[in-house]
Amino acid sequence: MASPTTPAPSPSRPQRTPDEVEDIILRKILLVSLTPPSSPNPAVAYLELTAAELLSESRPLLALRDAAERILIDRLSLPDPPASSPSPFAFLAAAFRRAADEARKISTIRDAALQARLKASIAHIRGLILSYARIVAGNPDTFPSPPNAPHPAAELLIFLLAEAADPLDPTPSPGAPPPPGFLDELLGNVEYETIEPVMGELYERLRQRVEKVSALGDFQRPLRVLRRLVGIPNCARALVEHPKWIPKNQIMLIGEGRVMEISSLLGGFFHVSAIPDREFSGEPDVGKQCFSEASSRRQADLLSSFATIKSVMNSLQDGLRDILLVLLKNLDTREKVLEYLAEAINKNAGRSRMQVDPLKCASSGMFVNLSAVMLRLCEPFLDKMESKKDKIDVKYLFCNDRIDFKNLTAINASSEEVSSWIESWSQEHAQDNVSGEARFVESQEATSSGKNSSVSLPSKAGALARCSKKENFSFICECFFMTARVLNMGVMKAVADFKHISQDLARCEDDLESNKAMRDQGGNSAQLDQDIERLEKIVESLSQDKLCYEAQILRDGAFLQRALSFYRLMILWSVDLVGGFKMPLPSQCPKEFSCIPEHFLDDAMDLLALTSRIPKALEGFPLDDFLNFNIMFMASSYIKNPYLKAKMVEVLNCWMPQRSGLKSTASLFEGHQLCLDYLVKNLLKLYVDIEFTGSHTQFFDKFNIRHNIAELLEYLWDVPSHRNAWRQIAKEEEKGVYLNFLNFLINDSIYLLDESLNKILELKEIEAEMANTVAWNNRPAQEREERLRVFHQSENIVRFDMKLANEDVGMLAFTSEQIPAPLLLPEMVERVASMLNYFLLQLAGPQRKSLTVKDPEKYEFKPKQLLKQIATIYVHIARGDKEAVFPAAISKDGRSYNEQLFASAANILWKIGVDPQIIQEFMQLAGKAKAAASEAMDAEAILGDIPDEFLDPIQYTLMQDPVILPSSRVTIDRPVIVRHLLSDSTDPFNRSHLTQDMLIPDTDLKSRIDEFVRSQQSRKRPAADSEIGEPDGAADMVE
């Protein structure tokens, strides 16, 4: 018996059975009750019908594992859920979170058997939650939803976006993150068909998130979401099998190229850009936000904007690279990715044209991004290009079913020639297949197959039909050719647009400055004010556009370096097709090289020219291969397009040490044997060949091209090894390419100086008009504006022409000192003398004072320097004149020669401080010319009337070496026709083709001319003269 003082034991809490514990946990997870609640809780649903069913089955009113699915279905099936209740998908996601919470709690239960039972039950209910979440996501109408409930895909996207949130994102997270592990288990190891419906809707909503977003918008969260999804195999498959992976829909007035951008799932991401797109602009406006009123902004602000844009665009491009790389590594999705890239290229082929229709083709922003992504995909084999370039198969151009090359211009082959080559290759290939030989060695990388049934460079279907069997091309090969096309339509097209914008901006700024000047000079009119306001708006808009292009392309040094690396591989691969870096090239251009699309090499040169003008863009980059390539092909018949050859010279011109700012470029020109042996020779040859480009603008184009050649030649003359090569070429090619070079140099010099001096007179006339302010201000505003426009136009012409004329005369000055012989050849000496006499007349003659202008340096007009160079050329040629032919040639010039002219020029030379030795020799030459003139008059008097048949039909002078033209059968003096052929390879009398080796010596006529000369001399000269010997003038005529 217990002591009365002992307290009674407290009543113990009743022990719950395992079923009761399981019931409590499952009801907490599903928020349900099987018995009427003692107090109402809106969050907990009383499942009265479910309870009745359990009682009818003689089962306890407990939420146990075997009834869990029935309870979950009944919970989701409650009719008419109120607006405040969660949607079925949101409820299931919350239930998943509660299940995770309960799973953590039971870990403290000591009863191992009970803990194991509860773990299994919770795992079971989690599985049911996920299964029904997938059903609800794919079929939103499966269970009743509250009014205006969001689509499950929208809720799933909110989860994904919240999970991908970053503190640096420009906007806050759109919602709460999902329960840990929910998304992975929801989308993970399940049947594809289970998640395909929801993923289709999810991807479309994800695309809509970025379709109107600019580089400064919130694209990074959606991008991280997409990157996460493609890492899940089924989600990756759902992406590439989505109807909008490659859209088939048509939009009125919109081309299929633009549809790829605005409708495809990846198109929205590729559209995000700083580059303006007027038709489908993104927000916020990058130009207005970063570059408005840029001229008045601090440089630091502009640099900050450049850095921001570069950073966000690299983030976008890295993300897109990662996405494509994941898909390419997945065997189930690789082919679809290659199809997408091919479709984007083919449907936007119009971007290769001069004028791009913005409604038909994707934007520059998309293709610049695609360029950057493709270059990133190329990086693994660009780092090992020497070993990987053999995997690039030229047959891809003709025998693949992805990229359409048939409308591209080949480097040196017509479509018919390419067709013939393919036909021959196909026949050989078929024989190889019959003999059982391997057709192709597959790359060690994963390969992707292409069916070469319909796409090829030529247009003839017959040849293509033979290229019809399956061909395996390595991924390196496919990626290489796709990247080449994308760069052409992307970054290179954008660079061309940037140049046009810069030119338009410069023109508008000039017009704006002119209009403001007119207003300042009293031209106040409403129309003028409107024009100024209009131009100010255009200048502001163009300035913003230019800076946007610059920010995304020119300021991204890593992007440019990747592109340079790609084109270095292009050069190495192309050179391998002709046997490597060896000169001379084979006499016959290999067909494989001939068929390369021209833009492959043209784009390489454009990029080199661009980067060569950007400070430090080439720093540390190996240029040797580009240098050797340009030397090999700049004057080769392997390349037909003269403008491509001109770009090669432009690139080398940019690399001159004084221009590039890089010490490394000096060693480029001085340390390569190929350069020492062929650079000067090929530059001289191109100087001649560029006379006829085939373009309607060829007359003016040649001056721009020769300007670059002349600058480069001037630099090379100061390099002793190249100067020696130059002298050797002049000796070996004295009557070949070097003579042609001198001829065109003289032609250009005469034209440029003549044009410049005429324009200077026009400038003086307008300057005089403006100096009379009263009369000028009384003129109508429109007339003044027109005169100002003419004035500025003439200024530009004079500046350009004078610069080139100075270069040409300068080149004659320094080469004539060491290489005078070619200038003294019979077909050249009179032409040289006439040119020098003409220049002397303009610079020292009576009209020279009319050429004085305000600020002559502004127009590159340096009359003192020109006169000094002209006098120097006279002296240099005279020093090399061993046969004494130069004085006679000077005096024979009836257009400009005047003995007083030399004296006048000498006086000016003394005043400007020219070397007295030069002046002395110059005057000695003048004396010899005067004597030669006197002798020529005596000789002419001796000869008397010359029979017409002895006269040259063009010059009407006594022929010395008559030749017959084979086509027209006209007899003409050899020096005259040779001089003509230096500029024009045609018969001047019927335009038929003619070369020097086709001339037929007229020996009979020459004998009769010689006899005539001897006869006249003997008849008119006294016998005493005959005993002393023939006078020099007559001797010259005999010779």
From TrEMBL:
Catalytic activity as recorded in UniProt: S-ubiquitinyl-[E2 ubiquitin-conjugating enzyme]-L-cysteine + [acceptor protein]-L-lysine = [E2 ubiquitin-conjugating enzyme]-L-cysteine + N(6)-ubiquitinyl-[acceptor protein]-L-lysine
Region of interest: Disordered: 1013-1039
SUPFAM superfamilies documented for this protein: RING/U-box
Domain U-box as annotated: residue spans: 945-1019
Coiled coil: 525-552
Annotated Pfam families: U-box, Ufd2P_core
Gene Ontology cellular component annotations, sorted alphabetically: cytoplasm; nucleus; ubiquitin ligase complex
Residue intervals passing through the bilayer: none
GO process annotations (BP): ERAD pathway; protein polyubiquitination; ubiquitin-dependent protein catabolic process
Protein name, entry field: RING-type E3 ubiquitin transferase
Species annotation: Brachypodium distachyon (Purple false brome)
